[in-house]
What we know:
The protein has helices at about 1-30, 35-50, 50-60, 65-90, 100-120, 125-150, 165-200, 205-230, 235-255, 265-285, 290-310, and strands spanning about 95, 125, 260, 290. With about 300 residues, it is mainly α. Strands 1-4 form a two-stranded antiparallel ribbon. The chain has a two-stranded antiparallel sheet with strand order 2-3.
Amino acid sequence: xxxxxxxxxxxxxxxxxxxxxxxxxxxxxxxxxxxxxxxxxxxxxxxxxxxxxxxxxxxxxxxxxxxxxxxxxxxxxxxxxxxxxxxxxxxxxxxxxxxxxxxxxxxxxxxxxxxxxxxxxxxxxxxxxxxxxxxxxxxxxxxxxxxxxxxxxxxxxxxxxxxxxxxxxxxxxxxxxxxxxxxxxxxxxxxxxxxxxxxxxxxxxxxxxxxxxxxxxxxxxxxxxxxxxxxxxxxxxxxxxxxxxxxxxxxxxxxxxxxxxxxxxxxxxxxxxxxxxxxxxxxxxxxxxxxxxxxxxxxxxxxxxxxxxx
Length: 310
């Protein structure tokens, strides 16, 4: 048990720290290569922040641990809109950009609903995974198009002048941190799998709760930092974007690598995921903000998700 716990914690720390620095290098290299800030904000950063989920689910799927691979996506989506969003709202009221959230929120909800319908038979086939991956291309096009209309609604890359970016260094750091992120994901999956066996926990719970919370920590850290700086207007958009990438890109890649079946425990988890998304949407659309009491409700919904997943 001790070895499993050490593997899990070391993997979690490596995954969280390395993924954050990898996103920074990816952003800087994209700027140095002349990509527009809009493209970087809408796609590069979005894909980068989903790297933990992507690597963990891909590794788990490759090992035939489909419950962990798919559970990580469902659990991360639920945690983002309950634990992460709720905890952030407890720190500071979150103000939303109505037009952005309506567009991207509707796209996210459509993607999660489509994924739920595909998974309702408790399995994911390669053809279904291919549809999700192709849908990500279409969603990426829409994100960039919308970002051109409202460039203030996308994450802002770090403001280091382009001429100060050391391209060679960033290539090395980017490759190193990507490797560490991959190593962290591998250790996290290994540790979680061993913990499940040694504690008698089913793999669905491991994927839906333990692993998903771990891969959502970068989003939690980023959201909390933004709240402390008073930059809450981008928090909700970032979380919605993260869920969109998780549902289409991460689930699509995992399904292509290792299609398979999951336990019937996922029926309730998928419905709960959609309920949380709708609840967060209602909070935003009714008051154009999420107050502290609403944040407490969202955190309580996450506690309910954990209880449901046991």
